[in-house]
């Protein structure tokens, strides 16, 4: 961005939203679970739908590109960072309420927190999400799932804002959910809140299932090393991790990026990894698996920046 454009935009944000914290040249490695990523020109965390709408309007007015992220748990930001304004939804929009068997939650609420909230109200359906990192909005965006469930099974209605600042509501059917997909990936709408439709359940059974899923994750996944979750989508009828392990790639590394020695479906940052390291490792894994199994692995991680 040009200096004058930057200064005018920053001044406009601070004048319109004096309570919002606008970070300048903010390293995105601080906002991704990979701990990788160059600087964003600006980063802001809206605390309300009104603040979000104002930020979008100011971006349009000053011709500043806007990028939306959640908690950064499924995100790889390239090494030169992101130009313009990054709006981080994780950390804001944290409303959470329950009425009967329905939960209404802000897009910034941690997905695991929603799972625990549902359990506290003896509602079943969200147990699968207890160990999935990231925000609710991000989970809806990519139809996150694990074990016996995904967001498509529990979402009743989604409230969103277009980049033009228009409010929209999507039914479950209107979300066009599929494996790791929703219509939000095409229509550039920003989730602000989600209505979850759950079912009454047995408190002990809900907690037992959540404990089981948590123990399985701790035993099998490299949770103590920075990563972005599953590196690749599951090929039809197969498992990416098994294909990668069969190719002899467990522990294979490029720079500081490594195929996890604990679970081959994960790529971890062993220390000082760059985005380029990760991208080169992804390409090497894809090439080797395709050569051996004739399966093209599709990355699950979202790549942003330049």
Summarize this, please?
The protein has 306 residues and is of the alpha+beta class.
Give keywords.
alpha+beta; five-stranded antiparallel beta sheet; globular; 30% helix; 306 residues
Q: Biggest sheet: strands, sense, closure?
A: 5 strands, antiparallel
Portion in strands? 25-35%
Rg (C-alpha, Å): 20 Å
What's the arrangement of strands in the largest beta sheet?
6-7-13-11-12
Unreliable sequence segments: none
How many helical stretches?
8
Helix content: 25-40%
> Mean pLDDT across all residues, rounded?
95
End-to-end distance: 13 Å
Tell me the total number of β-strands: 19
Tell me, briefly, the overall form. globular
| H and E string | HEEHEEEEEHEHEEEEHEEHEHEEEHE
SSE-based structural type: alpha+beta
List the helices and strands and how they pair.
Layout: H1 3-16, E1 22-27, E2 39-44, H2 49-61, E3 66-69, E4 75-77, E5 82-88, E6 96-99, E7 102-106, H3 111-120, E8 123-124, H4 136-141, E9 145-146, E10 149-150, E11 155-161, E12 167-171, H5 184-187, E13 190-197, E14 199-200, H6 203-220, E15 227-230, H7 240-246, E16 253-254, E17 257-259, E18 266-269, H8 275-293, E19 302-304
Parallel strand pairs: 2-5, 3-5, 4-19
Antiparallel strand pairs: 1-2, 6-7, 7-13, 8-14, 9-10, 11-12, 11-13, 15-18, 16-17, 17-18
Description of the molecule:
The chain has 306 residues and is α+β, with helices and mostly antiparallel strands. Strand 11 (155-161) and strand 12 form a beta hairpin. The protein has eight helices and 19 strands. The protein has a five-stranded antiparallel sheet with strand order 6-7-13-11-12. Helix 1 (3-16) runs antiparallel to helix 2 (49-61). The two termini are 13 Å apart. 30% of the residues lie in helices and 26% in strands. It has helices at 3-16, 49-61, 111-120, 136-141, 184-187, 203-220, 240-246, 275-293; strands at residues 22-27, 39-44, 66-69, 75-77, 82-88, 96-99, 102-106, 123-124, 145-146, 149-150, 155-161, 167-171, 190-197, 199-200, 227-230, 253-254, 257-259, 266-269, 302-304.
């Amino acid at each position: 961005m040009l200096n004058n454009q930057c200064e005018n935009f920053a001044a406009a944000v601070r004048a319109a939203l004096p309570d919002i914290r606008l970070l300048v040249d903010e390293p995105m490695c601080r906002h991704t679970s990979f701990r990788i990523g160059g600087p964003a020109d600006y980063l802001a965390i809206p605390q309300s739908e009104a603040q979000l709408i104002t930020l979008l309007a100011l971006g349009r007015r000053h011709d500043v590109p806007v990028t939306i992220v959640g908690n950064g748990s499924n995100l790889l930001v390239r090494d030169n960072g992101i130009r313009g304004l990054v709006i981080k939804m994780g950390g804001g929009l944290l409303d959470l309420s329950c009425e009967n068997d329905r939960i209404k939650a802000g897009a910034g609420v941690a997905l695991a927190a929603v799972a625990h909230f549902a359990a506290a109200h003896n509602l079943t359906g969200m147990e699968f999400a207890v160990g999935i990192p990231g925000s609710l909005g991000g989970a809806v965006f990519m139809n996150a799932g694990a074990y016996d469930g995904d967001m498509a099974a529990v979402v009743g209605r989604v409230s969103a804002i277009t980049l033009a600042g228009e409010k929209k509501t999507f039914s479950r059917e209107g979300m066009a959910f599929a494996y790791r997909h929703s219509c939000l990936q095409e229509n550039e709408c920003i989730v602000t809140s989600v209505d979850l439709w759950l079912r009454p359940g047995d408190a002990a059974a809900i907690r037992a299932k959540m404990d089981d899923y948590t123990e399985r994750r701790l035993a099998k996944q490299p949770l103590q090393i920075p990563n972005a979750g599953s590196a690749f989508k599951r090929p039809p009828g197969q498992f990416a991790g098994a294909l990668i392990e069969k190719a002899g790639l467990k522990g294979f590394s490029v720079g500081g990026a490594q195929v996890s020695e604990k679970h081959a479906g994960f790529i971890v940052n062993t220390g000082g990894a760059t985005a380029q390291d990760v991208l080169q490792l992804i390409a090497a894994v894809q090439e080797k698996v395709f050569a051996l199994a004739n399966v093209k692995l599709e990355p699950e991680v979202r790549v942003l920046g330049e």
